[in-house]
């Protein structure tokens, strides 16, 4: 028997990979947030979408600097994922709070998160208002993955990538 879903309809599309979305301010202050709403939308040219709440500091920075990085973590970064998902970078240093370290990206100024196993560097192509969110379309300028965990164009079962189910429920590859 089918049950009608009236709220949180997006949960029907979960689990979704959890990632750390980095951005940077015009005065070069890095920012990071936990996110699970991303998807590829074009292979040629490579374009991805990330959806971010309009009021989020990250949304403000992406609109200003026109770039972002999707950092793909493993379960070793679960504590940082929780901290970066529950704290705003507008008035606090989430890197200091979470213990995350950054590295320079290859093609954008937004940073890479040390210890992640994949990165997608993007230049903002288009922004679409989508309810309470902005859908940021990013042209992929550079992407890389740890070959220990990404083989034959797929993540291995041992990668330990976290997936969001709903609310505080997270699962990951073992």
Provide structural commentary:
This protein has a single domain, classed as Electron Transport, Fmn-binding Protein, Chain A (Pnp Oxidase, Chain A), CATH 2.30.110.10. The protein contains three helices and 14 strands. With 174 residues, it is mainly beta. It starts with 15 loop residues before the first strand and ends with a strand. β4 (38-42) and β5 form a beta hairpin. The protein has helices at residues 57-65, 78-86, 94-98; strands spanning 16-17, 19-24, 30-35, 38-42, 47-53, 67-72, 102-103, 112-113, 118-130, 133-145, 150-151, 154-155, 162-166, 169-172. 13% of the residues lie in helices and 43% in strands.
What's the layout of helices and strands?
Layout: E1 16-17, E2 19-24, E3 30-35, E4 38-42, E5 47-53, H1 57-65, E6 67-72, H2 78-86, H3 94-98, E7 102-103, E8 112-113, E9 118-130, E10 133-145, E11 150-151, E12 154-155, E13 162-166, E14 169-172
Antiparallel strand pairs: 1-13, 2-3, 2-6, 4-5, 5-10, 6-9, 7-8, 9-10, 11-12, 13-14
Major beta-sheet overview: 7 strands, antiparallel
Tell me the number of helical segments per DSSP (H or I, 4 or more residues long).
3
Q: Regarding CATH, which class? A: Mainly Beta
Distance between the termini: 32 Å
Q: What class would the helix/strand composition place it in?
A: mainly beta
So, CATH architecture? Roll
What is the number of E strands? 14
| CATH superfamily (homologous) name | Electron Transport, Fmn-binding Protein, Chain A
How many separate domains? 1
Order of helices and strands: EEEEEHEHHEEEEEEEE
